[in-house]
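Morning!

This is the sequence you dropped in the shared folder:
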Amino acid sequence: MKIKVGDKVKVITGHYKGTIGEVKAVNAKTNKIIVEGVNLVKKSLKPSQMNPDGGIVEFEKGIDASNVLVYDTKAKVAGRVGYSTDKKGNKIRINKKSGNEIKGGK
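The structure's back. Tokens below.
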């Protein structure tokens, strides 16, 4: 998967279209990513030993990786991920639209 944890991404479809957030988790098997502040859902929890009060909890649910583009904060543009080599011969990820190197992926 070309999107990594720590990347800034822009949502391009759905209810959260246009939202920019940081990737918190990536699941390559299901092709889902969790983006900070995107796809928030509420879940009712029964009281248990771990959570004696129970109540309603809000958390982020995964969205498909095809619904986001990597966001370049310098050029303020979102684009697809490409690969190139730097002067030392190392493989680096680039934003295809801006041509800048993508930093932040772990």
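Headline: The chain has a mean pLDDT of 93.

More detail when I'm at my desk.
O.
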